[in-house]
Amino acid sequence: MGDYAVPAHFLLSHIIHNKIIKPKPITSKTIEIGSKYSPEFVCTPFKYTLGTLIEGLDSGAKILIQAGGGCRYGYYAELQEQIIKDLGYECRFYNLVTAGKTDFKRIYRMMKEIDPKFSILKVLYYGSITKRMLKYMDSIDHYIREHIGFEIKKGSFEKVKAEMLHKFKMVKTHHELKKVYQKYKQEIENIPIQKPENPLKIGIIGELYTVMEPYSNYELERTLASMNFEIKRFTNVTYLLFQKHKKVKQYLKEISEYVTYQMGADAMDNIARAKELCEQGYDGIIHIKSSFCTPEIGAMPILTKVCNDYNVPILFFSFDTNTSEVGIKTRLEAFYDMLEMRKKR
Amino acid sequence: MCHCGIIIHKEKNTTYNALGDKMDKIKIGIPKALHYYYYGTMWKAFLEELGCEVVISPNTTKDILEQGCKLANDEMCLSLKLYLGHIHYLEEKCDYILVPRIDNYGTFEQTCTNFLSLYDIVSNLFKTPLLTYNVDVAHKKSELEGFIHLGISLGKGKEQSKIAYFHSIEKFIKMRKKQRIQELKKLNMTNIKLLIISHPYNFEDTFIGNSIKKILSDLNVTAIDGEMITLNENRNSEESLSPNLYWKYNKELIETIPVIKDNIDGILFLSSFPCGPDSLVNELIMRKINIPYLNLIIDEESGSAGMETRLESFIDILENKKTVR
Asked: What's the topology of domain B189-324?
């Protein structure tokens, strides 16, 4: 999923001795394969991940690992395993999460099966480095999102970031990681930018896969940056893995006038974020999701109400495997013009 | 809950007039959609024992469907659209509307995410005050607690609510047993027997299910409702089909398949478009069973003509198979 392949590969390559096949970046071919074998009205991430898994098998993978989450995502693994077996592939399929619950004993047994030399100590050590790496990556991304729209030389942020990720792959200790991070942080902060005093600020919220996988949202963030927006996005891996469970209660309290209960996946979180963005004076909000994402669909009427109450425009995108890129661009341009007009007034 | 205070206050206003004479009972609306088809009898018994008047919305009409589609988001599933239509019908016809929030009956007994957000969607879209109770067994919020809470928000005592709950659940179990015996009797029929795998809020609904029921009875087919056969004794028999399944309602449906599979001629999978759990579970089951099946997906534009043709040809195949045997 986007750049997160780097930490995932880092962790796995250090804790197990099997050969790891790096997933190819998602292409239109991936989607074609994925949609061909998927049920008709399943949500889009199912199609993307199925396509990726099949491409992995084609390049020789024998073991597949799938996770799960708090909505339909938790059931992906079982059906994908069946589809892959029906297609005649021979492989072992491991599902890390069942019914939205992580059972560490079960995972330990699974890892032992995959690699008999598997050791807990290594997991703890490299796990802590990976956690830190994720945190660094997310904080750099956060900075980049706020400034990339105003870089003087196009592509300078992305170039430095790619270099940093490359260096991240080779670190061995916490100390090395920190050094690399500090070096590149400085480099990124020194990139010349030309930021107007009061730029248009936009917040991106929505379903986690679509938000984090740039291919599935048709490079929305890049398009927004080229329109000179300052971008803010909340969902990232650090949030999902390490912060979400702490934040839930606080979020529910903040939006008690709209929402009383948790709504599955990140739906409730997104409503709280929308309110936060409205209160912080953002000019607009973009909500993105894959088509048929049930929790987000449930959140949409409430999001509309929140934005109405605060008088902040919100744009909804629902991405499918065959959404037209030109259509997205046209809608974004119209949204931009509208925001600019509002700001001038 | 923030609602309690308001509700008791309002109840005092409506139940007694200035002279202290009793006035009308509190009117509580129940939309005839989604969980009504599971818990409707229970709610009615419970609320009536506590002295409320229950207003149930009528069977789905064209108007209800249209209103629902207008209110809902276009990607919402048909069943949820119908639910919103029913709520719209009840507005201004009652003092409160009952919209429960049922999350799960345990880690492996979860419901669809629409059921989690239902209360919040309705409370943001409509003005009529809502009554609710929360079931989240995985986080230690049992159904009993939920009903006691419901009783308290109606201004009744804890004990009284508890007793009413037990009475209502007794009634509910009795009804389910009776339904099950009736449904199992159908297995002895000699004509074509078709197992219906469909959520009751789809199959029992007049807009979605009625035309299919009629077509089937015209074709002289016995339709066996998979949901009604479910009872605790065949719990976990579904594990042979799907060990990791964690949706309560889908579990209840597919666990009937291994139990009666030798007694039926075919299976009809009926779901509303685009049902989240069904999209995955039914696909998996279709890949695993070797019984003839038909998969029908219904949306608000489905005409009965197309369905009739598909059902007819499916039944033809089943009949041929039966005579060859």
From this structure: Rossmann fold (3.40.50)
